[in-house]
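hey can u check if this looks right to u? its 323 residues, i copy pasted from the old doc so theres a chance i mangled smth
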Amino acid sequence: HHKKLFTILDSKLDKDKWFQEIQKTGTKNKDIFLDPDFVNANLRNSNSHGKLIIYKNTNKYFLHCFELNKIFVKDLSIEKDYFDISTPTGYCGSISNIINNNELSKFRSLYKNFIKKNNIIAELIKVNPLNNNFKSPTSNDKKFMKLTCSVDLTINNNQMFKSKQKNMINTAISSGLSAEISFDKSFINKFQNMYHSFLKEKKADQRYYLNNDFISFVEKEIEKKDAFFVKVSDKNNNVVTTALFSLSDNILHYLYSASLDSKKYRGSFNLMIKSAYDHGKKLKIKKIFLGGGKTSSKEDKLYTFKKRISDETHEFFVIENIY
């Protein structure tokens, strides 16, 4: 009897074992995209489940993390359930130490069987732009989507301190705004309210709203000092812009932010990023990852804004499989 090479864990039911398996790989991997609490915080709805496939053969491993979504087909009475697979968080957190192609093929054929057996009809994998040795569970080609941005914390003459961007920071300060780093757990509810009214104003899809699992994820991270809020306040101490950053693998990830009125509080976002920058420098962190725009257009407003304060861009690819 050979040892089972392939196990599947659920982000809610097998959370402890999931953490143990990451630790067993011996990587210092504290990748937020592989954290079951973060996966749960990002699941689309109750028909979505966070899964981790664990492939192990002697000292080689492949950990693949995904979201399994049940598909509802309107006018079809289907005897069996169908599913699709997506990346639950912003990017795929899968890790592997397999270098040998035969070994990779072995895993991939087991993965293919899993796909077939479970009536999975499509798959979308969002490759982490910062992961240069990403291995995919399938052999399909990756497709370029858009550029993403980061601020380099190992240099001093950053883009965000040059000419116009520097003026934005000064504008914010001279209009009485100030920024602080906060590990205050009681701020989570206020943050959630600000973020939700921000989404309402933008008429955003319901699935972008932050759930209870999100709250417990943030509480856990803040307790460990692996996450923090930046609060930008006006002279009356009202928070006008706020953001949540999470520390993962020596990188600060800019996760969520909300603003009351960006036109009225000019430069508040720049001041917020500067505050995270100063904090990251103190902790000797390599970079702040800002992500990309809402769309893949180079003229995308969010992208052009991020690019102006960034030092580097990174290509973002996806792998799409239709089965």
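The chain has eight helices and 13 strands.
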